[in-house]
Amino acid sequence: xxxxxxxxxxxxxxxxxxxxxxxxxxSHRTYSPSKTPVFFNPxxxxxxxxxxxxxxxxxxxxxxxxxxxxxxxxIGVRTVRALVETNVKEAFYNDSHPLAVKLATxxxxxxxxxxxxxxxxxxxxxxxxxxxxxxxxxxxxxxxPFGSSAPYMFTAIGAVxxxxxLGVTSTDSAVLNGLHPSRSLARxxxxxxxxxxxxxxxxxxxxxxxxxxxSSQDVGIVPLISYCESYYVRVYVKILRNKREARxxxxxxxxVYYDEESLSWTLxxxxxxxxxxxxxxxxxxxxxPYCDKNFVRKIYDSSKGCLSPRVIKLLEVMLEELDSFGxxxxxxxxxxxxxxxVATATAVEKIREAGYEASPTIFGSDCIKTGIPPYEYLQFxxxxxxx
Length: 387
Prior knowledge:
35% helix; 23% strand; 2 domains
């Protein structure tokens, strides 16, 4: 017996016993996953659906045997779904909480995948360190802690084989988005302040931290998919285990110099002189693209029928989005110019008519990416978009 109130749910193709949300409500409207003895957040289904789509692409590569691991598995939903819904051959489930392991074992058994699952109850870093031995590495590892991923990322990188994928969630979005600069420096090794493009900087901060930790192990990273929600940042990175790729990753780090008054910014990569730059320095962060459009296209084409409209829309915007650095919130431009904001589609159209690239962005439905030089933002919008 598990000893806590449970209900059975169906998520994807997996039948799962989960803590009964009615027993852990903090109000008649609010269910708090952190209050449950075993963590499970039903609101993260879209996050898990996208992970299954990533695994589907990885496990459908010809002549490739795919292994899966999660170091903080909770009720085991990711492990069970990976085995039931994709061509993953074996899974390694871990959680340090004995009750979580007990419930996850029950879920693995009831879905008929126990023979393909190795279950452990170790500290997450110990589990990942064990899998850092070359013969123990996995094709895909999922790191999904409650809070910051920073204390676990170094060993997580070590646990993924060459050309494998690491999926990372960080739920400390206030730190990643620059609301607590000293904490971001302590956790992720970079100084970041609140700016109008804080969602993108949060993604780039997490990627930059991963790149630095990877390079110290002679490992390079290639971002495949990156995005943020209201309370978390999620990235998928390919792991490349050689010195050349490590050096290439580090070359993509840099600083952004941000001027709050003019909304302008300048990007400075490592090795470039900084004498001409003004504004507050933010970084070091990842400055290269944070999504691989070819990989996103594979996800979109192979799993479109299995994803929610919300996730499909996210992928569609990823495919359309420019690979440029930074984005502009249209309401902020309107506020600066003391006028009403224009619709996103209208702004994109007018900017393109003026000869610049423009696109929607994953960081907000009222935000855009554009090739307009940042120091020209206000004057350009005043003359060409809002006139």
